[in-house]
Specification:
By secondary structure, the chain is an alpha+beta fold. The protein has one domain. It is 71% helix and 12% strand. The protein has a two-stranded antiparallel ribbon. A hairpin with a 2-residue loop joins strand 1 and strand 2.
Length: 83
Amino acid sequence: MQPVTRSGELFTQPTANTMGGMRTFGRALQWMALVILPLAMVLELTGGLGRRFGVSDMVLMLGYGVISFVLGRMLEGLAGRQS
């Protein structure tokens, strides 16, 4: 990163390597979300959650999956716009 001075403050501009890493991390979050959501459904249907009523666990995994996907998409979009 190269330091840039504006109005007496010190800022750093991200390099292409940093943006590539952020894009990769965003993609990884999206893939993780795409794996978590069907996994939650399969665990619920097969009783693999270990409880008789595991719907709350499935909804919790759904929430994590959606948040992970949206955060990954935002990071990927930010990295693509910066480079």
